[in-house]
Structure formats: structure tokens, C-alpha cells
TrEMBL record:
This is 1,4-dihydroxy-2-naphthoyl-CoA synthase. One of its GO terms (cellular component) is ribonucleoprotein complex. It comes from Musa balbisiana. It catalyses: 2-succinylbenzoyl-CoA + H(+) = 1,4-dihydroxy-2-naphthoyl-CoA + H2O. Keywords: Lyase, Ribonucleoprotein, Ribosomal protein. GO terms for biological process: menaquinone biosynthetic process; translation. PROSITE patterns: ENOYL_COA_HYDRATASE (PS00166). Its EC number is 4.1.3.36.
Amino acid sequence: MADVSGKDLRTAERRIARIAHHLLPLATPPPPRPLPIQRSVASANDSYRRVHGEVSTREATWIPACDESGKEYTDIIYEKAVGEGIAKITINRPDRRNAFRPNTIKELIRAFNDARDDSTIGVIILTGKGNKAFCSGGDQALRSSDGYADFESFGRLNVLDLQVQIRRLPKPVIAMVAGYAVGGGQILHMVCDLTIAADNAVFGQTGPKVGSFDAGYGSSIMSRLIGPKKAREMWFLCRFYDAYEAEKMGLVNIVVPLERLELETLKWCREILRNSPMAIRVLKSALNAVDDGHAGLQELGGNATLVFYGTEEAMHPALGLPPFRPLPKHQVPLPLFSRRIIPLTPSAATAAASPKIVELGSLIANLTLEEARSLLDHLQDRLGVSVATFSPAAAAVAPGTATDAAAGAPAASEEKTEFDDVSSNARIATIKVIRALTNLALKEAKDLIEGFPKKFKEGVSKEEAKEAKKQLEEVGAKISIV
Ligand SMILES: CC(C)(COP(=O)(O)OP(=O)(O)OC[C@H]1O[C@@H](n2cnc3c(N)ncnc32)[C@H](O)[C@@H]1OP(=O)(O)O)[C@@H](O)C(=O)NCCC(=O)NCCSC(=O)c1cc(O)c2ccccc2c1O
């Protein structure tokens, strides 16, 4: 028989005693072990399955990751899966059953921040090194009267910041639990969105035995997860519960054989990753909102704002609603617009010009609108003059408008108005007025002031043209009625 020293015996006794007072007495015999992975699937060949198929259950290839500080991690391992949107954060203090010290929490916060900001990451796994413990809570050797103190001269309870960070993180966090998840470690898995437990997992609180308690998430979320009676039992009695009991209580999502723990967790990650990240982000905040009070509403509200920012209305809030009353038919705009239009009207001065000018004038007069536009661009590039310089005496200057009158209108026409270039300053206000004048939809109104010359209004009276001119000038547009 091998020699056993007195010290070894004492250590063994101490360990047995430590576990024993958590595990005994069990109120009921352990429940029969269900099959490790249960599925409640109506049909393995339903249309959902045929469309979406099964996700891969292969292993991931992990590469070490760091955050922007580039600082090494000592208490954790931070990795990302090659070619997949999965990050894995592992508490790396196995000789302490992955108990955390303040530095561990600081590193966890850095890694979670990085995974949050990395747009290639969609799901984060939190786990512990080895098979013996996910995390055994705060490092009891470092507890002092003002919290947990390691390299600093003061104590902290910075795990509370980490809990909040995980709750607010806009991506799912999955706790992958093997072995003990006790004390502050059990609370960490509870604030994660999902928990995949190995069949050797053990859950429980020890606070009242070691002079501590978590009256924050550790109490409220536990009560939400397993119900108020069970939460009281867990805290008041400080018993430990195995993985199957935990599953029955609703503390974990699924129990799997230890050797399949990571593969099953990866499968869950991959299933999440094929769904809409924004839908999941909003759902996470919605599921947390009531329990997180104002902070929960703030998170949910922030997500609503983000979704709103993607809409046209948020980009142009000043545009308001489209005009309610449809305009009479003759006023319904025929879309037509111009960045630059030269009003080509004959004048008395033309007759007095030299033959060269008359010929040039005649050539210009016969240009199509497209050619006229090209000519203006050319002149502008060549001579550096603005289009407005070429507008006739009337008043056309950027960002002006002018509408062509009805075809065949007798006089060269006070009933025409054409749009010239609309400056960005006046743009939104101009669009708004145009919509009121024309009943155009937002997009059409925007196209109107940006697009190639097209008709704006047809058959309008002089008074209407003047009124339109007045309204547009009031918002900074410059108009000519020719
Ligand atoms: C987890 C155990 C049941 C495992 O038992 P096992 O027999 O497998 O292993 P050992 O007991 O021999 O442990 C091996 C080795 O690890 C050391 N160790 C284990 N846990 C811790 C720990 N939490 N802190 C420091 N060191 C730990 C252990 O001493 C051994 O070292 P050796 O040198 O002797 O080999 C069992 O280990 C256990 O019950 N651990 C203690 C669990 C515990 O009480 N945790 C603290 C609860 S309080 C808490 O976590 C907490 C943290 C916070 O930050 C809070 C913040 C705000 C409010 C409340 C908080 C809070 O309550």
C-alpha cells in the first residue's frame, strides 16, 4: 500500500468535507438520467428542416485573439474560430477551479468588448479551462473587507460590471459549463443568454456559507429562471445540484455528455449564426427589458433607434408626411427635371447680333435638351462660368426652377418654370415645397431636383407659376419664369 502522509490525508478530508456539506442531504434520490440530448421535433423531415438543413457539428479551428491594446492575457484565453463568427473566452485558472480575481474580470471585460465590436463575430462562448470547473466564483484567498484585491491596493466587486456587460452585449453569449459553476461562477452562467451543460456539471450557491451573497442579478435573475421558491432553496440551503436537476429547473438549456460539450455548443452557435443578427439583437434586449428596468428599456430603445436610422425618414426628418390632398389632374406633375436648363427664348437682341452670333444662336436653338446640357457642362469646364451666367434676364440662378409651359403655348411663356441646380443647403426645404406643390412622393421629389431635365408642371397659369416661384424662393431656391 502506498504511503499516505498526514498532510495528504488532511487535504483529502478537507476536500471531502467541503463538497459533502453542499451535496448532502439530498431531499430526493437523484432523478433517472434522461437521454443526453433530447429533441422535441414533430418530424425530422418537415419543410423547415428541408429548407434550412442541419448545421455542421465539426470541430472549430481556434486561433488566439487579442483586443486593440495588444496586451497579453494571463487569466483568460481569448480565441476566435477560423471562418466562423464565433469567439470563445475561457477563464484560465484551473488550479483555482477557475475562481476569478479582479484581474481575471478586467481581462474578461476587455475580451467581451473586443468580441462586441468585431463585426465578424456573432456569438460568444464563455467557458472555463479543463473539465473540473466552469468557475468557482470569487477567489476567496483575495477577499478583503472592501471586495477582492489582487494587484491593487483596494478591493473590487468588478464581476458586477461584467454581469451587466454580458446582459447588454448585443450578441448572444453562451455559457459552456463543465464541472462546477458555483458562487459567482453560477451567476456568470445565469447572466449568459444560454447555458449548455456537460453531464458532470454541478450548480449551486455558497455565499451564505462563506459570508457573501449576490443580491443583484444573482438573486433576481435566478428567481426569474428557476422560480422564486427554487431560488430561495438554492440560496438559503446552499445545496449543489447536478446537471439534470439544473435542466429540470430551467437553469440550463441542455445537458450533453462531457466529451460532446464543445461540439454541441458549436452547433448551437452555428444555428444562431444563420439567423438575422439584428433580429437576435433586438430580441435579446426585449427579453431582458422588463428585468433590467430602465437600463433594459434603454437598451431596447437604443436598438429601435438603430433600426430607425436605417430608414429614409430618419435621414430626411424635415420632409414630413406627403401632402394629404391629391392635386387636380392637370397639376399632377409630369416628372421632368434638370440640374441645369438654359431657357432658350428669342429676344430683340438676337436680331442685332453679328452673323456669327446669329448662326451660333441658331445652332444652340436647335439643340436637344441633352445636347444643351452637354454644352453647358462643356462651357462650364472650359470657361469656368456658371450656368446662371447664361440665364436670361429673368432671374434664373442656382438652385432655381422653371417649368416648361404646355406644348404649343402661345407666348414664350410666362407659364414655364424650370428647375436649376438645387444647392445642398436649400435641398431639403426645396424638396418639401415641391412635394406640397406636386403631390410627388419623397423619392420622386428628390429625383426631381437631382435628375436630368424633365417636365415639372404642365398647363399652369401665370399666377400658379408665380406662386410656386414665391414658395420655392422662400426656402432658398432661385427660380426663373420664362
Ligand atoms: C468548487 C469546489 C466545490 C470544488 O471542489 P474540489 O474538491 O473539486 O476542489 P478543491 O476545493 O480542492 O479546490 C481546488 C483548489 O482550488 C481552490 N479553490 C477552489 N475554489 C476557489 C475559490 N473560489 N477561491 C479560491 N480558491 C479556490 C481550492 O482552495 C483548492 O486549492 P488547493 O491549494 O487547496 O489545492 C470548491 O473548491 C469550492 O467550494 N470552492 C469555493 C466556492 C466559493 O465559495 N466561492 C465563492 C463564493 S462567493 C462569490 O463567488 C462572489 C463573488 C463576487 O465577485 C461577488 C460579487 C458581488 C456579490 C457577491 C459576490 C460573490 O458572492
